[in-house]
């Protein structure tokens, strides 16, 4: 099991003897290879850590018998753990933002549902009012039917009176003819006796039309009452017509507002589509630059590998590295002290080599993870693709950081190896042994090649930094534009929904307006025939009254003539 521990060195006696190195366990790695947990305080003896400084943090692997199997410095792994923790925190923040967005969406949907329910309640109230109006209209229709029946009765009575008046007129015409005959006889010298005079006076009294005049006055009174009954209905009709005309003006104004808002929405949508197209072009440009940056990183990695190989060859030839070694001091140093120095350098080199190997293994593991994610990404579509792209970008960033951190460690390791080799050569020579790796007199000087590679690497590194800075600026601009486009898209959706609601409201108002006009027209169609009938009856009665008055005048003239004859 892997533990995080702290190096503790116990001081020995006056001569430095008896010093021991221990490891204080601080935490252990969980089974998921990601999380860590605190362990009870425990101290384990570990002489393998004697070369490390007191208080240093290390990663130590223990077997079941609590013996140290492997030990390495914990600096870089801790940095990776903290980076992983930071990424997890960022992912949690993204999830929290998604949850907040879902909450806002649900809140908006709940508000929309409440608004719909309120609209339904208002619509139900309108339907109830419409039913009440229909009931009132039915009652008014019954009253109109009753008025129509009364009008028909009055019309029949008037017709009957008219027929009686026509009979009286016919009788009057006959008497007038007889009177003319009497007058002719009178002009010829004839005279009327008392009996004839009495008969004529009775006939003239019958033509006096006193009863007919009473009936006419009663009919005029009924017509006036009928008109008084119709007047409130006409006033209500005019009021309803004015209200409907006002509603029609409101509908026309709302229709104009809807047309203006719809035109403005289309203009903003066209601008939004143009911004989206520009965003696609900028995103494609960014992807191209990112691809070029990845290729440049791969070239730098290959150049670093080549540099290491050439550096290693140059180090073995002894013509490049460690020109700062004080050979005179090594020559004057005692063999025992030189042996101790070589041993310490070997142990330190072993620890550093183990750490670099672990980092190399982790780098290879990261490379495998990146390849697996790329393979999955080529097979996945939909919403899961975004998560894989984010995870792939994180792994690539970690790979780049780890690879850059290993550049200096690899070179330092090669330099230490060369240092150790030169110390071993001097030690072997002073001990009388045959030195290893004797330099060839005709060795090739690789320093110009290394200098050229280093200059090229620095140039490409500078180009990569400029490119990454440009990519960062483009990414920030795209994110800003994307945010603006998303906000405008959200606002456009809201405005589109408002336009739909306005259109639906306008449609409902148009339906209500049409229904109101239908009611007004039906009301007018029901009242107009009755009013026309009342007007016609009043006209006929007036004509009849004029005829009765004329008849009275003729009767008076005949009575005067009769008095002359008598």
Rg, rounded, reads 59 Å
The whole-number mean of residue pLDDT values reads 76
CATH class membership of the domain at 280-477:
Mainly Alpha
Tally the helices: what do you get? 7
CATH topology term of the domain at 280-477? Helix Hairpins
According to DSSP, the number of beta strands is: 5
For the biggest sheet, the summary is: 5 strands, antiparallel
Gap between N and C termini: 159 Å
Placed side by side, the strands forming the largest sheet appear as: 3-2-1-4-5
Computed structural class: alpha+beta
Taken as a percent bin, the fraction of beta residues is 5-15%
Instruction: Tell me the CATH architecture of the domain at 280-477.
Output: Orthogonal Bundle
Which word captures the global form? rod-shaped
* N to C succession of SSEs: EEEEEHHHHHHH
Low-confidence stretches: 13-17, 318-323, 436-443
Layout of helices and strands, plus pairs?
Blueprint: E1 2-10, E2 20-29, E3 36-45, E4 57-62, E5 68-73, H1 75-187, H2 194-206, H3 210-317, H4 327-332, H5 335-377, H6 383-430, H7 447-565
Antiparallel strand pairs: 1-2, 1-4, 2-3, 4-5
Please, could you describe this protein's structure?
The protein has 566 residues and is an alpha+beta fold. Among the domains are: 2-73; 280-477, Helix Hairpins (Orthogonal Bundle), CATH 1.10.287. It is 80% helix and 7% strand. Strands 3-2-1-4-5 form a five-stranded antiparallel β-sheet. Helix 3 packs parallel to helix 6 (383-430) and helix 5 runs antiparallel to helix 6. It starts with a strand and ends with a helix.
